[in-house]
Amino acid sequence: MPLTVFTSDRFVDHLNPPGHPERVERAEVMQVVAAEFRERGGTVIEAGMVSDEALARVHDRDYIALVRETAGRATALDADTYTSPDTYDVVRLAAGAAVAAVDHVLDGGADTRALAMVRPPGHHAERDRAMGFCLFNNVAVAAAHARARGITRVAIVDYDVHHGNGTQWSFFDDPTVLFVSSHQFPFYPGTGAAGEVGSGAGQGFTVNLPVSAGATDADFELLYSRIALPVLRQFAPELILVSAGFDAHQDDPLGGLRLTTDQLGRLTAHLVTVASECCEGRLVAVTEGGYDLQALAGCLRTVTRVLAGDTGLEDFPVPTGATPRGDATLAAARPALAKYWQL
Ligand SMILES: [Zn+2]
After folding, report:
1. Residues contacting residue 53 through CB under 8 Å, at least 6 positions apart
2. Can you point out the beta strands (E) in the chain?
3. 77-95 burial, b if ≥16 CB within 10 A, otherwise e?
4. H/E element, 53
């Protein structure tokens, strides 16, 4: 089977205050989906902890020390990002799963794929601060690890409903890491306008697709087929990472988009297709948000089947219907990107 899942039974040990959407039950859903995958003959590997060296490629040493000092304590790191006594271990396991997934894919043959099923999410975490439920930026640490291993072009595609600000800033001036994000806008965390395209040598290597609340499957199909996928193909990555958040789902209590489980599977299948064209199928998905437990379970099952090769692009319906929100995003994003990509 082309897919290996990296996760940890300890992801239940990070506790947020009562009523917080990023809750222990999310880890229990991940455990159920991982167990189902194992029963079908899939390999599930228990994550180890990330090294300080790997974290320090993305995060300041002082910030890593600050998070370490929360071990054994319940603290608040920002308005909605908390620690409990075991959080420090859990966040090192989450980043460790993402790094191990990269190692697995780089050491494997063609069409080796991995899914790091982790919590808490990571894409809001910046160089020196926790925010938006995120402490360490799992996908950014994974991308930096791939770069350190000699991969010269890494693409990160983020379809979480929120903009991955931490990932964007980690590589904003870096032409070797392409960051493509589709997200509700305006919305938390406030970044991710179409005009944010990178700086210095990294100009053109940040691609933001901000979409209005209410956007549908058809809007997303338009944006991926007209911008995200063509840019990816032109960049020709040696490895594709996916920030696989499922809070753009229509049932999500935080997000205001209307994607179906099928469409999140379809977007993933598109990325698997590009990976097979560009980089011998090498793809690593790392989970981010997703706060409706049933939608989370459904999306994890679907994405697992897509990455395992059981379900392909042709198995998902082609979305139809008007695309007013997608058209508006195209109108904003195309001029911002025209200097850098043929679109
Ligand atoms: Zn999110």
Report:
1. none
2. 3-7, 43-46, 75-78, 81-83, 113-116, 154-158, 177-184, 206-211, 239-244, 283-287
3. beebbbbbebbbebbbbbb
4. helix 52-56
DSSP 175: T
Judge residue 313's burial from the number of C-beta atoms within 10 Å of its C-beta, 0-12 exposed, 13-18 middle, 19 or more buried: middle
Is 93:11 a contact under the CB 8 Å cutoff? yes
All structural domains of the chain with their residue ranges: 3-337
Q: How do residues 211-234 score in pLDDT, each as one tens digit?
A: 999 999 999 999 999 999 999 999
Low-confidence ranges of the chain (pLDDT < 50): none
Question: What residues contact residue 264 under an 8 Å CB cut-off, 6+ apart?
Answer: 159, 246, 248, 249, 299, 302, 303
Could you give the CA distance from residue 58 to residue 127 in angstroms, rounded to a whole number?
6
164 CA distance to ligand 1 middle (Å): 8
Per residue in 90-112, pLDDT (tens digit) is 999 999 999 999 999 999 999 99
Bond from prior residue into 319 cis (ω within 30 degrees of 0): no
Distance, CA 160 to ligand 1 centroid (Å)?
5
Question: What's residue 310's pLDDT?
Answer: 97
Q: What CATH number labels 3-337?
A: 3.40.800.20
Catalytic site residues?
A: 124
Q: Which of 162, 183, 184, 177 is nearest to 58 (CA)?
A: 177
User: How close is the Cα of 109 to the center of ligand 1, in Å?
Assistant: 32
Neighbours of 246 (CB within 10 A): 28
18 CA distance to ligand 1 middle (Å): 19
What's residue 1's pLDDT?
A: 83
- The Å distance, Cα 162 to ligand 1 centre, comes to 4
d(CA 205, CA 279): 18
